[in-house]
Amino acid sequence: MEKKKKINLTIGLSDLHFGHSNCLYETLQYCVDELVKKINLLKLEYELNKVFLILNGDVVSGTFVYRNQYLESQVQKNESIILGGAYLVYIIIKKIEEATKIPTKTFITIGNHEGWFKPHPENFSLGIARRLVSYGIDCRYVSSYLILNIGYGFENIEYNLCALHSWGGADYSAISPSVIRELTRAHSQMATYQRIIIDRFLVGHTHWLEIDRNVLGITVDVTGGFQLWEKTVSIRESGLVYYTIDEDGNFTVNKVSGLRKQIEEGKSQQLNTNNLRYVADLIDEGIQFEIDIGLLKESIEGLELR
Question: CA angle at residue 245 from 239 to 249, to 5 degrees?
Answer without folding.
Answer: 150
